[in-house]
Structures are given as structure tokens and as C-alpha cells.
Design a protein that fits this description.
- The chain is built from 18 helices and no strands.
- The chain is mainly alpha-helical and 410 residues long.
Length: 410
Amino acid sequence: MVLNYIWIAFFLIAFVVALIKLVFLGDTEVFGLMMQSTFDMSKDAFEISLGLTGVLALWLGIMKIGERGGVINAFARVLSPVFTKLFPDIPKGHPATGSIFMNIAANMLGLDNAATPLGLKAMEQMQELNTKKDTASNPMIMFLVLNTSGLTIIPVSIMVYRAQQGAAQPTDIFVPILLATFFSTMTGIIVTSLFQRINLLNRTLLFTLGGLCTVVAAIIWAFGQMPQEQMNVVSTLVANISLMAIIVGFIAAGAIRKVNCYDAFVEGAKDGFSTAVRIIPYLVAILVGIGVFRASGAMDYLIDGIKWTVGISGMRTDFVDALPTALMKPLSGSGARGMMVDAMSTFGADSFIGRLSCIFQGSTDTTFYVLAVYFGSVGVRYTRHAVACGLLADLAGIIAAIVICYMFFG
């Protein structure tokens, strides 16, 4: 519903701004530019969605091999001690634990659309344990905050968009996104735990979260010692090695378990095509709306206003042009995706703005969309502290993304 109002506002505001420019500034080309943008953006949206098909098929196929090869279950067993502490109301060994992990694993790979069916299944299983069917339970809220915090380890789709937009090294945002999403996720876990009175100081969680913080601090320190050019090279190398290691590791695990890896891959890859096709209308809608909004000049006025406000405080303003992606992300994944693509098209994929918009896209998730879809699927009306925790995690991710982008690319 919120996205509906935003989408309508794009066209109405654009039309009013264009009319003002025509009447008071004599700009006779503005309406022509707006109409041209509708054709250009529709074409771009289709080509982007089509370009995603192969990559989604690849990673959904690899995930299916990992599932058949027992890799996913192995990770679930390893994480079981942590999950029982974060989700104390879910009985040990309950099927919901496996569904939660599968959903988180898909999100870690940046496969947003693939993660949704797994998340809906997890919500149904948690609803079976829920004593108040119209009110969100603690496990539901913790699960959704983990989703909305955007826990992303391998931002596959973002790297594809960067490649499509001509980035010299599409994977150079791998480490920055990993760091930014870590801060948003940690904030989400801490805030939600405070609401739910989960003891984060117990040995298991303290060791796990403390260990992760130590690793991330070490990564930031190590990259901080490097010149920026070397930092980009190392970040890209780590990304490429990690991605290749996951593909080979999943296939090797399948081979060891005597899985027909080829058939498993094909079965999983079939979902890639349907997923890519499903996002075409959403991407067309939002890109056309953004294109009209930008062509009318309304986007420039909005950004200039924010820059002026930020400039008064004495802060640097070069990050402001990427803010539309950050502001849209809590509302709509497709909307934020459109803003990210628009930023890369306008400023260049390898520009500071282009890279920051990608880090924004990967550092958090669509808070209101996730809450609406997941809670709506099980009939939950009262969300309790879910929105507050989700938005605080988003804010942490946005701030972290700006700081880390300056560190790597500023």
C-alpha cells in the first residue's frame, strides 16, 4: 500500500513540476523528455530482468545441489546452538529451524526472491507454535528482523547489475556490503534481544557474536592499512575466490553424497527463470516512475534540497545522490533496485554514488514489504516491536554503508 502511494506520487509530482517548468520557465522539452523516459526505462527494465535469468538459475541450481548434498543441513546443525538461544520459544529440532536457516542462507546469497517462499514456509511453521494467532510471537519478530537487517554475504544480483552497467570490477562491493550488513544485523539482534529479554551474555551467543565482531574488526583494520587501490584489488580477489569456493564446495559435497548434481542443478535452476520473469512487471513499474520523476527535474530539486540541508551542518554532501536507494529500501526491494540502477546509469557504475547505492541495496532489506508479506501470510495483525527493531537495524546499515564506502572508495 505504501509503495502504491509512492508510485502514484512519482507521476503526480513529476507532472506538476513539468507543468510549472513549462508555464514559468518556458521549458517546451520537458514533457517530451518524460515520455521518452517511459520508453527507455521500460526497455531497460526488461533487459535487466532478462539478464538476471542466467545468474538466478545458476545460484538456485547450486543451492539445490547444496541442499541435496547435505551442506545446508550441516550448516543448520552447526548453527543449532545459536538458533536455540535466539529463538528460545521454538522447540529443539522443530522443522521451523531448518526453514529459517534456508531462508537466511538464500538472503546471504543475495537471492531475495528465492528467499521469500522459504520465509513464508518458516512463518507458517512458527504460526503453528503461536498461542495468539493474530499477534506476532517473539520467534517471528526475531526472524523478520534478521530478514529486514539484510544479512547478505554474497550479493549475487547486485554484482550482476553492476556488470550490466559496465563496472570494471563488479565484485568490488563484496567486502563493503559484507561489513555494512554485519552492522545492521548486529544492531537488529541486539535491539530485538533487549525487547525480548534474551540474554546475549550467555556463553554460546557471547562467543559467537563476539567472535564475529572480532573477525569484522580485523577485516576493517587490515583493509585500513592498505592504499585504496590495493584495497579494491584485494576485496575483488577475496570475492571471486569465495564465490568460486562455494560453487566447487557445493558440487563436491553433492558428489561425495552420490547426488546426481546435474539433475539437481537443473531442477533448482528452473526456478531461476520463473523468478526473473516475476520481477519484470515490478521493475518496469518502478523504473518508469523513477524515470518520469527524474526527467521532470523533480529528482534534482529533491536531491539539491537534501544537499543544502546536509551542507548547513558542515558534512560532506557527495553521498546524498545515493540516498534515494537507502530511503526506498525499507519500502520496496524493486523500488530500491530501480533507484540503484538509476544511480549507476546516471553517475556511472564505478562512481562513488554508483558504488554507494549498491552498498545501500545490500546492507538492509525491505522492512515494510517483508513485514506486510510475512505477517499477512499467516494473518498476524499486531506486530508489536517488529517495526521499531527493523527500522533501527536499517538506520545502522545506512550509516555503516556511508562510512564504509568512504573508507573503500572515498
